[in-house]
Amino acid sequence: MRGRGQTTHAHRDALAFLALVIALALGVLTAIPASGMATTRFGAKLSGDLDPVEVEEQCPDDGGLCTRVPLRYEHPTHAGSSPYAPRDGVIDKIRLVSSTEGVLVPQVVKVKGNFAPITEVKVKAEGPELEYDGTGLVESFNVDLPIKEGQRIAMRTQFAGALHCEPGIDNEAIVDPVLFLGDPFTDANYYTGCTHLLQAVMED
Hints:
By secondary structure, the protein is mainly beta. 14% of the residues lie in helices and 39% in strands.
């Protein structure tokens, strides 16, 4: 006969199992916010009235590819804050806005000098070819691009649609003909008032 203060083995096992389940659940819940907080974005904000070009911008030398490099985000001011990576990491997604369909290859570049006419560019990594539909809405692409703090995302392309262009401050440097991985630092030979409508997303 069992007294009032006694507990069966089955009861003790059930309590132990319940405690284990609660501990595991709390561990999972604790981990979720930590992963969410690790997301880092740089480049264009892709919000507000971005007004991408209605006709693609062709490379200056006509007919060939070029490397287009973002220098700054000032016009429009809401387009973004910084064109360069704030930390070392891996870019998981490239997001863009364009009103025309097109193709580009994202290039991770190192830049010396940040204004005309002294900008030098070197490609440190290249991503896959991205074909965008040009819907005027945000389009997202999965990539796997290592990047270091201070480096930027440029685009290797012939016709660029993911741009907002207006005369004024030189927001973009262009190396034409195109730069490839392994090429030495090369002087940009063109500058424009176009702002890149590209955003890079890094997650740990």
